[in-house]
């Protein structure tokens, strides 16, 4: 039988077109892909796809916890049997006491011993106590090296108060007032204080006793009088 050729239903491309596809086909595919990618970037399709993806991914790792080791149980105390030892006490031996034999007792006379004690020394007598200082005498009059100058209290001067302060003064060997006491007040504490301060600042002539300065008491009056 002669083979008959069946015409193909697929049309064949011209020879020059098939050669062009073989030569420039890959380049055309690359250009088409670039155009599609540029279109996707321009239209925002890539941005929408990346926005729909999750931004954060959380991952947690689960670690297996080791089982706690069993605690060792304390060992039970061992019971040690106690062995009691029997102690044998020695039997007491009888004690034999011999009676002392009588012996002659002779006494020898001992000569008297001389006492070697030193003779008693008389204790020194205590020193005599110093004589108590004599009480200062009270003198009737005084002389001044620097007489007292009392300051009239301003309030008493404005109120017209006058008076005399009588002071009992202890004058020492240097002529200074050592102690001042108000024996009779003027009626105003301000004038009494002013009189006392003036006497403490004053200088007296020391009182002489047997030619030597000695302390003495004296009565000193201070007058407060307004000049009208």
UniProtKB/TrEMBL annotation:
Topology in membrane: Single-pass membrane protein
Disordered: region residues: 85-133
Compartments, record wording: Cell inner membrane
Ranges annotated as biased composition (Polar residues): 103-113
GO MF assignments: energy transducer activity
GO cellular component terms given for this protein: plasma membrane protein complex
Protein name: Periplasmic protein TonB
Species of the source: Herminiimonas arsenicoxydans
């Amino acid at each position: 039988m002669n083979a008959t050729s069946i015409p193909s239903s697929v049309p064949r491309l011209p020879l020059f077109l098939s050669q062009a596809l073989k030569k420039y086909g890959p380049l055309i595919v690359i250009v088409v892909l670039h155009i599609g990618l540029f279109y996707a970037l321009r239209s925002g399709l890539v941005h929408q796809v990346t926005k729909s993806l999750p931004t954060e991914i959380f991952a947690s790792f689960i670690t297996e916890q080791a089982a706690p080791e069993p605690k060792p149980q304390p060992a039970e105390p061992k019971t040690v049997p106690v062995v009691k030892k029997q102690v044998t006490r020695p039997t007491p031996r009888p004690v034999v006491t011999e009676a002392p034999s009588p012996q002659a007792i002779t006494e020898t006379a001992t000569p008297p011993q001389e006492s070697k004690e030193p003779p008693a020394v008389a204790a020194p007598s205590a020193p005599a106590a110093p004589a108590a200082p004599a009480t200062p005498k009270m003198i009737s009059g005084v002389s001044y090296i620097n007489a007292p100058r009392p300051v009239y209290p301003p309030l008493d001067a404005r109120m017209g108060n006058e008076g005399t302060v009588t002071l009992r003064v202890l004058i020492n060997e240097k002529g200074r007032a050592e102690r001042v006491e108000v024996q009779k007040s003027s009626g105003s504490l301000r004038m009494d204080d002013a009189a006392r301060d003036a006497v403490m600042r004053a200088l007296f002539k020391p009182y002489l006793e047997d030619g030597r300065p000695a302390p003495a008491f004296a009565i000193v009056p201070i007058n407060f009088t307004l000049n009208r």
